[in-house]
Structures are given as structure tokens and as C-alpha cells.
Design brief:
With 101 residues, the chain is mostly beta strands. Helices cover 0% and strands 77% of the residues. The chain contains no helices and 6 strands. A 6-stranded antiparallel beta barrel has the order 1-2-3-6-5-4. A hairpin with a 3-residue loop joins strand 1 and strand 2. The protein is globular and about 45 Å long. It starts with a strand and ends with a strand.
């Protein structure tokens, strides 16, 4: 577990904007140690732009409250969580995520 990772969640701040519309923002939930494994590297074309997309897997100790809408920040890059898989009986967790540059 050689990487420092931050779990980020899009949460309601309790404030409102405009016509009583709730204000949401990304907030760090927790920081933990994980091992990062790069799975794929792709370059794709969309709307006349080239962008790079990487799928990574983070292996860490078990976390009970990770959600599909969460984000993971590692080494200055923010990744969208694609899914997760429990390792053993609550011994660990593999979090699959993707970042796009």
C-alpha cells in the first residue's frame, strides 16, 4: 500500500442558491493507503479532440461505505469510481476507477 488516496463525495452543503435550490460540492470523506494497479491505457477521439483514458484498480483495506458516485484522488488526479469488489470476508477492497486527461 504505497499510495495515499482520498475518497471524495458530492454532498449537500445545507445552503441554497437561486430559488431555494440546494448547493452541492465535492468534499473529502477519508484518506487511506492503497496499492494502485494500472489496468488499461487508451487514447480516444471525440468531437475532434484527443484524450487519454486510464482504468486503475486500488487495493486497500475494507471500506464499508463507498458509493458508485464517489471519486478517488491519487497523486493529483481525480478518478471516477466504476465499481468495487470485496476481497475475502471483509479483509480488503478492490476499487476500479477511471481518469480522463
Amino acid at each position: 500500500m504505497n499510495r495515499k488516496v482520498t475518497q471524495i463525495r458530492y454532498v449537500d452543503t445545507g445552503e441554497t442558491i437561486g430559488y431555494g435550490e440546494p448547493l452541492f460540492e465535492d468534499r473529502p470523506i477519508r484518506t487511506f493507503r492503497a496499492e494502485m494497479v494500472l489496468k488499461t491505457e487508451d487514447e480516444e477521439f471525440a468531437a475532434s479532440q484527443v484524450y487519454e483514458s486510464r482504468t486503475v484498480t486500488f487495493r486497500t483495506r475494507f471500506i464499508a461505505d463507498i458509493e458508485a458516485t464517489d471519486k478517488i484522488e491519487c497523486e493529483g488526479r481525480v478518478c471516477n469510481v466504476l465499481g468495487w469488489r470485496e476481497i475475502g470476508l471483509r479483509r480488503g477492497l478492490e476499487i476500479s476507477a477511471r481518469w480522463t486527461t
